[in-house]
Amino acid sequence: MNYLSREGSPVSEELWEQIDKAVVKTARSVLTGRRFLHIFGPVGLGVGSINIDDADNVTEEADDGFITTKGRKFSELPVIYDDFTLLGRDIEIHEKSGYPADLSKAMDSAQACALKEDKLIFFGNETAGYEGLFTAAGTNKLKRKDWSAGENAFTDVAAAIELLASEAIYGAYSLTVSPDLYMQMQRIQEGTGLLEIDRVSKLLEGRVYKSPVLGKGRAALVCSEPRNMDLVIGQDISTAYLEQKDLNHSFRILETALLRIKRRKAIVVFE
């Protein structure tokens, strides 16, 4: 039996195709972490755990006929999900009359699932023992100035780049900010005729992103080369059939994903 339980559902292949398109399109419009992180996978739903290496310290050690790998741990790929319901009557009308199906609930659920993925990437999950870019131990910290004044945003980002370079961390630097900080950079920089965001964006070759899950006053610069970090995808975002209840149909949007931080010093968090 297929894990997504589609074969036994009363949903037609044509409607499944519409649901898939709506879910994927909505998720792509929301996801932020995937825009700068290297994707490892999809490796399949059957992969339940993955190794996370400390890139600077991983090594094999032999002792009395045994070889072990130091600087390596294994973590479970958690399931990220969100559920939605389509009314049985609406599906019947769609199937019998050909009226377009209203998939607003599916799109709302896809958005919620995408935001949960980004929340895991940025903040991890303390209860489950997962670290995020903002919560991982051992990362670089810089005091953030007031980004609504002067050229503070530009000088802060430049300082973060300089810090990473001093630690021999080179490559594609990406800045992720909360919406309020993003809007604070939407102003003309005195004496330049340029928006502050344009100066920062040019410094990073356009790799500036904002995410609503960051709340307010948060920003981080990362060197997102795959040797420093990546996002492991087991099962990519898909929709499963759950059950029929009260003549209506329940679905689950799900994925398995995990952020791997291999080099913590490739992260600069502005505090």
Secondary structure blueprint with pairings:
Elements: H1 13-30, E1 39-40, E2 49-53, E3 59-63, E4 66-70, E5 72-76, E6 79-86, H2 88-97, H3 104-123, E7 140-142, H4 152-166, E8 173-177, H5 179-184, E9 188-189, E10 194-195, H6 196-203, E11 208-210, E12 219-223, E13 229-233, E14 238-245, E15 248-261, E16 267-270
Parallel strand pairs: 1-13, 7-16, 8-11
Antiparallel strand pairs: 2-5, 3-4, 6-15, 8-12, 9-10, 12-16, 13-15, 14-15
Helix pairs in contact: 1-3, 4-6
Structure description:
This protein has 271 residues and is an alpha+beta fold. The chain has two domains: 13-132 and 229-263, Major capsid protein gp5 fold, CATH 3.30.2400; 140-223, hypothetical protein PF0899 fold. 28% of the residues lie in helices and 30% in strands. It is built from six helices and 16 strands. It has helices spanning 13-30, 88-97, 104-123, 152-166, 179-184, 196-203, and strands at residues 39-40, 49-53, 59-63, 66-70, 72-76, 79-86, 140-142, 173-177, 188-189, 194-195, 208-210, 219-223, 229-233, 238-245, 248-261, 267-270. The strands form five sheets. Strands 1, 6, 13, 14 and 15 form a five-stranded mixed sheet that branches. The termini are far apart.
Indicate the CATH topology of the largest domain.
Major capsid protein gp5 fold
Shape: flat
**CA(first)-CA(last) distance:** 49 Å
Helix content: 25-40%
What is the beta-strand fraction? 25-35%
Helix/strand-derived class?
Answer: alpha+beta
In N-to-C order, the SSE pattern is: HEEEEEEHHEHEHEEHEEEEEE
CATH class of the largest domain: Alpha Beta
Round the Cα radius of gyration to an integer and report it.
22 Å
Number of beta strands? 16
Oligomer: single chain
By CATH, the architecture of the largest domain is named 2-Layer Sandwich
